[in-house]
Write a structure and sequence with these properties.
Layout lengths: L2 H13 L2 H7 L4 H15 L4 E3 L4 E3 L1 H23 L9 E8 L6 H12 L3 E8 L1 H9 L5 E6 L8 E9 L1 E6 L19 E5 L6 H12 L6 E5 L2 H9 L5 E4 L10 E5 L7 E8 L7 H9 L4
Parallel strand pairs: 3-4, 3-5, 8-9
Antiparallel strand pairs: 1-2, 5-12, 6-12, 7-10, 7-11
Helix pairs in contact: 1-2, 1-3, 1-4, 2-3
């Protein structure tokens, strides 16, 4: 095993496209394929399923991926220690994002960091909220973009609040409330609420319940959705209403009305989080950029 083979596997796990990965690593596609095949032969497993239409990681590939990411990180740290100038810094950063990421902050911050530190290789992994926290604790990712109501439950985790979001009541365009300029939580006591299933994330459901309790009621009927897109699809179809951070409308606004919520007392915070004592040499650079980031 050599570092080029490791980099080839990591790149292909991101792009799932041999042509794109070979271009990204500046090697020919035939050489790229040979590196993958050589590592598979050495390990005695198949890392990728291939056919004419698609490429995907095998179960063995998924099991090996965190180990290869760790090898790449150690390699990058070793190289970084030989460098004395920040502009020449070479590193590696594993970034965890939510599968229904709906805020504009993460792309802006990541692009700002990428421009400042072009030699730091970024790898992205997608998770549900619960599994992202677990990945952070288990050192599968170095940085995580999270949403939270309270941060007391983030043990062994440091974080920085990037934004505090105002909430809105989301309705279909033909809903009775759609022509309102703002709305009180008490006005929603007879509505059907559509929330994210607690097994996927407790953030939206927890915030919604706190808002309702502050209005003196518990929702009479709740419909669960697995992700924000499916939740908003059901809202647009008139199946109920939802309470979400206002910044969701930047991504999902078609056939929907976002109405500011009066007396909003449970705002969701957008965080960037990392595990305490993470030795990745690229991490302090990212934290520095996050703390001076202007939303």
């Amino acid at each position: 095993m050599n570092i080029i083979q490791v980099q080839c596997v990591l790149s292909l796990s991101q792009t799932l496209n041999f042509t794109q990965s070979s271009l990204d690593l500046h090697i020919s596609q035939s050489s790229f394929s040979r590196h993958i095949a050589a590592l598979e032969q050495e390990l005695g497993v198949t890392l990728f399923k291939r056919n004419r239409r698609r490429v995907e990681l095998t179960e063995s590939g998924q099991l090996l991926l965190p180990e290869l990411e760790a090898i790449a990180a150690h390699y990058d740290r070793a190289k970084a220690r030989l460098s004395t100038e920040e502009s020449a810094f070479v590193g590696h950063l594993r970034i965890g994002i939510l599968s229904d990421l709906t805020n504009r902050i993460a792309p802006k911050l990541i692009n700002q960091f990428r421009k400042k530190h072009p030699n730091v290789t970024l790898f992205f992994r997608e998770f549900s909220h619960t599994s992202l926290l677990e990945a952070l604790h288990k050192d599968v990712v170095d940085i995580a973009f999270l949403s939270s109501i309270e941060m007391d439950n983030l043990k062994d985790i440091d974080f920085y609040v990037l934004q505090i979001c105002d909430n809105a009541v989301v309705t279909s365009l033909d809903h009775t409330f759609s022509n309102k300029d703002s709305i009180n939580i008490q006005d929603l006591r007879n509505e059907t609420f559509i929330i994210i299933d607690q097994r996927e994330s407790t953030i939206i459901s927890g915030m919604t319940m706190q808002q309702c309790l502050s209005g003196g009621f518990v929702p009479k009927l709740i419909i669960n959705a697995k992700q924000i897109p499916s939740l908003l699809f059901m809202v647009s179809c008139g199946q109920g209403i939802s309470i979400l951070p206002m910044d969701n409308r930047n991504f999902f606004s078609h056939d929907l009305r976002y109405i500011p919520l009066n007396n909003d007392n449970c705002k969701i915070k957008r965080l960037v989080a990392w595990k305490k004592n993470n030795p990745n040499a690229s991490l302090p650079l990212f934290i520095h950029e996050a703390k001076k980031f202007d939303v």
